[in-house]
Amino acid sequence: MDSITPNKEIIRRICILNGGLTCYISHAKGEDFIEVLTDVNEDKLALFATELKEWSGVNYKIYNLNKTAETSLLKRINKKILPIKY
User: Fold this and answer.
1) Which stretches does DSSP call E strand in the chain?
2) Which of 10, 13, 28, 43 is the most exposed place for a label (fewest CB within 10 A)?
């Protein structure tokens, strides 16, 4: 499923609605999901993932930025979409 293109605006808005201030995304070619690394509270991550899937129809793997110290994950998920810098 190489044609998955994440809608960054949907991800940003749902992240903000769930209390997130920082969000990174990554999509590896050939994968049928998008990885998201965010600072949304741990107790809201399941709701966040459900909302993303319902709005976009794409599967997501969600990781909490505050709990993740795995450097390989931080290197792989590196496209910052929130906060928006002009």
Assistant:
1) 23-26, 33-38, 59-64, 79-82
2) 43
Residue type, position 37, single letter: L
Is the pTM higher than 0.85? The answer reads: yes
Instruction: Report the alpha-carbon distance of residue 1 to residue 58 in Å, rounded.
Output: 11
Q: What tokens were used for 82?
A: 């929130």
- In tens, the pLDDT along 8-30 reads 999 999 999 999 999 999 988 88
Tell me if 26 is assigned to some domain.
yes
Dihedral sign, CA of 54, 58, 63, 66? negative
How many structural domains comprise the chain? 1
Domain that holds residue 21: 8-82
